[in-house]
């Protein structure tokens, strides 16, 4: 069984973010492995550990050259190898282009299962897993709260919480799965894992070697502005009519 985990390098959640010429400034802030992707890496490792030798985990990512720094963390957690697609033609790529590139690499890799986090913390779109499923023509099991894989039957079973309760869903290989942050607790890379990661294979590919042609993004940011500073609040002094003042304020804000 071959498992692929799609990950992304994103600006640190605590960093002050800004747009430059319609693009998120990624060079001026610290970059990290997307927090929500760590759960997908951890789940892939647990699946492999549960079924013994002969199963592998490959991390796949698309982004600028420094993306390899985030991918290295996934390798230090225990993934076997990695594929990184980086190319000047990918600057400004949207979710459609990202899914196209990732799907091309996945389709030629002979993978049985693809795991993803629910979304990236820089865009918060939560659409790439579904787009991958559509492009690959594979089944999709999204927002999984638990994952059970049966390699012998080439089948995956997940549970997911919905408005009506907990659903159980099944699909045959090949399948795309996205997992929620409550599915597990990602492990911290050990010193041994960090040292071992330096020797693991990281296949750096351009668009040409990935078998994808560059194209303009379908969506672009044409304008952006900084979030306004928080204004001072309204202080209501209760001198017998505090309730009326509060109601008037809420009505003015159309909250009641």
Automatic annotation (TrEMBL):
Alphabetized UniProt keyword annotations: Electron transport, Transport
CDD domains per UniProt: ETF_beta
Cross-referenced Pfam families: ETF
Record's GO cellular component terms: cytosol
InterPro entries: ETF_a/b_N, ETF_b, ETF_beta_N, Rossmann-like_a/b/a_fold
Coiled-coil positions: none
GO MF terms held by the record: electron transfer activity
Domain Electron transfer flavoprotein alpha/beta-subunit N-terminal: 21-214
Family: Belongs to the ETF beta-subunit/FixA family.
Protein name: Unannotated protein
Organism: freshwater metagenome
């Amino acid at each position: 069984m071959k498992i692929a985990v799609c990950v992304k390098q994103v600006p640190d959640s605590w960093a002050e973010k800004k747009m430059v010429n319609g693009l998120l400034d990624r060079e001026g802030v610290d970059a990290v492995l997307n927090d929500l992707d760590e759960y997908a890496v951890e789940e892939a490792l647990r699946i492999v550990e549960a079924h013994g030798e002969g199963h592998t985990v490959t991390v796949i990512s698309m982004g600028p050259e420094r993306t390899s720094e985030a991918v290295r963390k996934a390798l230090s957690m225990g993934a076997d190898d990695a594929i990184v697609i980086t190319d000047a033609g990918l600057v400004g790529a949207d979710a459609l282009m990202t899914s196209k590139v990732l799907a091309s690499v996945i389709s030629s890799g002979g993978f049985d299962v693809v795991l993803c986090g629910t979304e990236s913390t820089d865009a918060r779109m939560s659409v790439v897993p579904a787009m991958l499923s559509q492009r690959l023509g594979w089944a999709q099991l999204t927002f999984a709260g638990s994952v059970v894989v049966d390699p012998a039957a080439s089948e995956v079973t997940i549970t997911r919480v919905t408005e009506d309760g907990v659903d159980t869903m099944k699909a045959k290989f090949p399948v795309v799965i996205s997992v929620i942050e409550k599915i597990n607790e990602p492990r911290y890379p050990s010193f041994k894992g960090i040292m071992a990661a330096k020797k693991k294979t990281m296949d750096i590919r351009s668009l040409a070697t990935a078998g994808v042609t560059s194209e303009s993004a379908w969506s672009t940011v044409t304008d952006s502005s900084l979030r306004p500073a928080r204004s001072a609040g309204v202080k209501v002094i209760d001198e017998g009519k505090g309730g009326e003042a509060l109601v008037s304020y809420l009505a003015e804000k159309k909250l009641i």
